[in-house]
């Protein structure tokens, strides 16, 4: 073969261009698939967090109501409550995220929130309550009744 024919032969160029085009299309499609799965998992994580936060806030509201009902029942029948404690647990993390529980006495709400999600659960009690913000490191908490101040407090065990 002559040297001039090698420079004019375009067979290798079409194979190289085909490989480059197929490789770049494959990389682009793979990137789109990976990004779509990542966004899908983030949405699923947020939905799981919202549901878990809602359940945690509702459970805490119910426990506060039960605690208050016990106090009111004893008082309505002429009894006195000197001391009352009610222990409960909360998970350390939800969906691998730390969270806070803000129990407000101004609006009577249990607010469970993190950077990704936030839920609000109302409660209704007749006793005085000292609002508190709890952080998700500790798992064990308790309600206590202070007979001297006629208030309900919440704290870590």
Description:
The chain has helices at residues 3-8, 11-76, and strands at residues 83-89, 100-104, 109-113, 118-122, 128-129, 132-135, 140-146, 151-156. A four-stranded mixed β-sheet has the order 1-7-8-5, with helices on one face. It has 157 residues and is an alpha+beta fold. The protein has one domain (3-156).
Radius of gyration: 31 Å
Q: By helix and strand content, what is the structural category?
A: alpha+beta
Helix content bin: 40-55%
Low-confidence parts? none
Largest β-sheet summary: 4 strands, mixed
Ends apart, CA distance between termini: 90 Å
- Give the helix tally: 2
Average pLDDT level: 88
Number of strands: 8
Please sum up the structure shown.
The protein is of the alpha+beta class and 157 residues long.
Topology:
Layout: H1 3-8, H2 11-76, E1 83-89, E2 100-104, E3 109-113, E4 118-122, E5 128-129, E6 132-135, E7 140-146, E8 151-156
Parallel strand pairs: 5-8
Antiparallel strand pairs: 1-7, 2-3, 2-6, 3-4, 7-8
Q: Could you list some keywords that capture this structure?
A:
2 helices, alpha+beta, 157 residues, 4-stranded mixed β-sheet
């Amino acid at each position: 073969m002559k040297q001039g024919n090698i420079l004019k032969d375009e067979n290798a160029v079409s194979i190289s261009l085909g490989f480059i085009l197929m490789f770049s299309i494959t990389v682009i499609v793979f990137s789109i698939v990976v990004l779509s799965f990542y966004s899908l998992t983030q949405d699923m994580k947020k939905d799981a967090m919202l549901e878990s936060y809602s359940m945690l806030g509702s459970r805490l509201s119910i426990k506060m109501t039960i605690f208050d009902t016990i106090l009111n029942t004893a008082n309505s029948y002429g009894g006195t409550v000197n001391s009352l404690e009610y222990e409960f647990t909360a998970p350390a993390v939800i969906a691998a995220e730390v969270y806070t529980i803000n129990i407000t006495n101004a609006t009577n709400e249990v607010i469970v929130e993190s950077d990704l999600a936030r839920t609000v659960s109302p409660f209704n009690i007749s006793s005085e309550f000292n609002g508190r913000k709890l952080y998700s490191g500790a798992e064990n908490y308790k309600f206590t009744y202070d007979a001297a101040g006629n208030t309900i407090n919440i704290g870590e065990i």
